[in-house]
Amino acid sequence: MGASSRVPALQNGMRILRHLARHGGPMPAAAVAAELDLPRSTVYHLLAELERDGMVVHLPEERRYGLGLAAFELGTAYTRQAPLARLARPLLHRLVDDVGHGGHLAVLHGREVLYLLEERAPGSPSLVTDVGVRLPAHLTASGRAILAQLEAAQVRALFPDPSAFTDRHGSGPRALSALRPILVDVRRQGYATEQGEVTPGFGSVGVAARDHTGFPVAAIAVTFRQDVVGASEWPTLATRIRQATDELTRRVGGHPAPSEPPVL
């Protein structure tokens, strides 16, 4: 295959990926072909190539294609670089000053969250959420805030079986059936929580920020001693965190999250 024939294939492959990202959920190959005005044979061929590279995932029962783990890794690779951290740093600093508890910025990396920033409040204890640390996404408030904004098929791809559910202290969901209601609650209330699942005695509240495609590009969370901040105070804390994530969303060219709950 010559260079002249490879370039259109690359361009059409990128068109398919961008279309799947904008659509917000898995699509039938025929619909992709029709909406992009491409031959079905071309679309099936390109989807097969993208599937081999992990950029798309085929859902045979639904006869649809969605973004794969490799696409998520590419998306979060950008967020792990300086622009996102530099945009979020002053927001996180102001948030921590305002609420008096430590905060952090995290992005999704596979089934884990990767911490890009940590801001400690004066007198607050050192936590495990230091810059560069990775933790299981399903156990953290940051990870749950991000996972709740993904399509159900994407969550299933990340957690295909019970072996994907690691734990730290014997608590937290250990199967997709246990994670689903947690994510539904996150979408319903607009913020995520965790209670001692990362560090016993400490709780966290987190809210996701979104990019221009609506993808949850990162999350900001605040961590505190559970004997200092009662559960009745968490919604107020979440409102302040949401102000920071809304501003981060605007800074990366995003738009607010939809209010409808996901079908998990």
TrEMBL record:
Q: Please state every residue range assigned to the domain named HTH iclR-type.
A: 7-69
Q: Which UniProt keywords apply?
A: DNA-binding, Transcription, Transcription regulation
Annotated Gene3D superfamilies: 3.30.450.40, Winged helix-like DNA-binding domain superfamily/Winged helix DNA-binding domain (1.10.10.10)
User: SMART domains, alphabetically?
Assistant: HTH_ICLR (SM00346)
Question: What GO molecular functions are on record for this protein?
Answer: DNA binding; DNA-binding transcription factor activity
**Keyword Transmembrane: yes or no?**
no
Q: Which GO terms describe its biological process?
A: negative regulation of DNA-templated transcription
Q: Ubl conjugation as a keyword?
A: no
**Top-level taxon of origin:** Bacteria
> Pfam families from the xrefs?
HTH_IclR, IclR_C
- SUPFAM superfamilies the UniProt entry points to: GAF domain-like, Winged helix' DNA-binding domain
Q: Which CDD domains match?
A: HTH_ARSR
Pinpoint the IclR-ED domain residues: 70-254
What name does the UniProt record give this protein?
Helix-turn-helix domain-containing protein
**Taxonomic placement:** Bacteria, Bacillati, Actinomycetota, Actinomycetes, Jiangellales
